[in-house]
Structure prediction request, 92 residues.
Amino acid sequence: MTRPHLHPESHVVDRIGMTGYMMTTDAFPDAKWVEEVHEALANATLGLVLLHVLGVLVSDFERPAQPVDATQALNLSAGVSNCKVSRGRSFS
Prediction:
């Protein structure tokens, strides 16, 4: 059975869990490298999360969100568009 395609960041989280589990087993007694890999992956993930949050904040200051009224939000969630052409049909 093949595993469904996941985002690359989920593989990093998998590796953090795997190395964390490896530290609790007797298969790797006193293996300092497992702890080092686990710590490096965890720190890299935290760094990427911080970069992501900073990027969101910067983009929010560059282009503030436009308020959406309730009718617009309902139409968008239902897949309705204000366009005159939708799915190749003309609604005039």
The CA atoms of residues 50 and 88 lie 43 Å apart.
